[in-house]
Design a protein that fits this description.
The chain has 339 residues and is of the alpha/beta class. The chain has helices spanning 3-25, 32-38, 54-69, 87-96, 106-109, 128-135, 138-145, 189-197, 210-216, 226-231, 257-260, 265-299, 311-316, 318-324, 329-337; strands at residues 41-46, 74-79, 101-105, 152-158, 163-167, 182-185, 201-204, 221-224, 240-247, 251-256, 303-306. The protein has two domains: 3-159 and 249-290, 3-Layer(aba) Sandwich (D-Maltodextrin-Binding Protein, domain 2); 163-248 and 292-337, Bacterial extracellular solute-binding protein, family 7 (D-Maltodextrin-Binding Protein, domain 2, 3-Layer(aba) Sandwich). It has 15 helices and eleven strands.
């Protein structure tokens, strides 16, 4: 499809969906009592993962809670599997009001609301417990609230696990053990800087080439979360997995501000509460999904090393904070103050 036709399609989609919300929130000539009892507001939620993925399960729980709290007056329809577009396109459509709701990762979302970049800084969190204390507390709310300037409303966070290093050469206990390893990274200046600051050699490479790269020795290692380490079969050719949790970038459920502003105060409260309540189901689903991968890898006898002291790792990446976190020092300090 040409760029012109693709853009035209998105604009037409946005017009249709915004019109549907306006119609759902408007009343025509009906009396207020009739409107409330007869009208159903349908909200479309974009999800790029398949039907059985933990984030989709969370989306569906959110939809269920909204339906229950409004007695069917507001219906959330979940479009899984990327039916409504890739993450970047979806975020742009949410800004325009063409897509009402979406679940996206905080990393691409941070291109639209820069304060979210804090969530991708390495070794900012001292493990999962610290992460969720931050996200579900005042600091997490402050970060979500920053989305409003980008024409979006942040509703809640979902779990996406933690990325850790794995390699085919040796057990890694400290940053010193990373020295000389060739580590595949995403095409990201931050990730390249992370690996280099730990003394390893950063090797950008397409995700689909990682297995063969590990197998042939073009690279010594890579980094990802438990489910990806297992599902890609990287565990077969990289037996050493170090749980350093260097990044724990969460997922975010967002809503178009254009749609949000048309809701009543009561409905806004219902939508936000439903999203927050759905988090527990999503996190439970992620934990179960992750456990399957952990059990399968451990059954193969891989060497799993868990970092206990994060300070040497945090000290090694301090220069990255000067470069990538200088504009958000106040938020970073607030995160670190959470115990």
């Amino acid at each position: 499809m040409s760029v012109f036709r693709s853009t035209k399609f998105v604009l037409v989609l946005c017009f249709i969906l915004v019109a549907s919300v306006v119609a759902g929130c408007g009343g025509g000539d009906k009396k207020p009592a009739e409107q409330k009892s007869q009208q159903t507001l349908v909200l479309k939620l974009a999800e790029n993962q398949p039907e059985d993925y933990p984030t989709t399960i969370g989306d569906k729980e959110f939809a269920k809670i909204v339906n229950e709290k409004t007695k069917g007056r507001i219906k959330v329809e979940v479009y899984a599997g990327g039916q409504l577009g890739d993450e970047k396109s979806v975020i742009e459509a949410v800004q325009m009001g063409g897509i009402h709701l979406a679940r996206v990762n905080a990393q691409p979302l941070s291109d639209f609301a820069k304060k979210l970049r804090v969530l991708s800084l390495p070794y900012l969190f001292n493990g999962p417990d610290h992460l969720w204390k931050v996200l579900n507390g005042p600091v997490g709310k402050e970060i979500l609230d920053s989305l409003e300037a980008a024409k979006m409303v942040g509703l809640t966070y979902y779990d996406s696990g933690a990325r850790s290093f794995y390699n085919s050469k040796r057990e890694v206990l400290t940053p010193a053990d990373m020295k000389g390893l060739k580590i595949r990274v995403q095409q990201s200046e931050l990730m390249v800087g992370l690996v280099q600051s730990l003394g390893a050699s950063a090797t950008p490479m397409a995700y689909g080439e990682v297995y063969s790269g590990l197998q042939t020795g073009v690279i010594d290692g890579a980094e990802n979360n438990w489910p990806s380490y297992f599902s890609t079969s990287h565990y077969e050719v990289a037996k050493f997995y170090t749980l350093d949790y260097h990044t724990m970038t969460p997922e975010v459920v967002i809503m178009s501000k254009a749609v949000w502003d048309k809701l009543s105060a009561d409905d806004k409260k219902i939508i936000k509460e439903a999203a927050q309540e759905s988090q527990a189901v999503q996190r439970k689903s992620w934990a179960a999904y992750e456990k399957k991968s952990i059990d399968a890898v451990k059954a193969k006898g891989n060497k799993i090393t868990e970092v206990k002291d994060f300070k040497p790792w945090q000290d090694a990446v301090k220069p990255l904070y000067d470069k990538f976190g200088a504009d958000f020092k106040d938020v970073i300090d607030k995160v670190r103050a959470v115990k």
